[in-house]
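I have a small job for you when you get a moment. Can you supply me with one protein entry, sequence and fold together? It will help me judge whether the discrete encoding reads sensibly. Write everything out right here, beneath this request:
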Amino acid sequence: MAGSEWPEDGELVVGKVDEIADFGVFVDLEGYEKRGLVHISEVASGWIKNVRDHVSVGRTVVAKVLDVDTSAQQVDLSLKDVNEHQRKETIQEWKNEQKAEKWMELSFGEDLSTEREDAIADALLVEYDSLYDAFEAAAISGTEAFEDCDLEEDDLLAIVQTARENVSVPYVNVTGYVDIRSPSPQGVDDVKAALRATAGEDSEEVPEEVKLEVSYVGAPEYRIQVQAPDYKAAEAELEDAAARAKAAIEELGGTAEYHRERHEDDE
């Protein structure tokens, strides 16, 4: 999704070395459709005998924007003002955005029009700093990651499906709810017993790599939160926890109803 806007002074940009001259290096800037110049004095610290000793044509570099002159159509850059940490971090962010653009194609098809792609991207960027962050959030939290996002449900579901098939995250969080009721005189104790079963406190059913928490929302509704290494494991454990709640309370004469969304109307 390359644009025609200009980078800002001080911004770190990614580009590919297009041409090397005795006085400096020309760089094609990724995402801007612009060409910048690194003067020989900004290529590296110290005296430079030959620019080609420091860069080569076709090399991907990270540069700092020193000055932008829109009237002259000129962007002045520096390579020497970028340290190794900044270089690695910027390159990683750039690679992540390339992945995210590919995921957009996977979500909506290669024939996705530029206008629609930009509209979807703009909607996601209202809530997230980058498209990659949006897809990562989708992999972790599903459509709940986009509660304030102005997109159609089908678009959100397409993003979530692509994210869960392609995004690698260190863990995922999923949430569900269970309504637990008991008509018994000792109903409070029965519900407590069911909640212990839900949390797996009376057994070794919850795997070590899974973190499960049960919290009170408002009678008879309780929230089940699961953290697991991947979405499939998290969903499975969430359903198992709800099943434990149902089995435990029904054995005591009560009922349990599992649902993924909170019953806001009950507030």
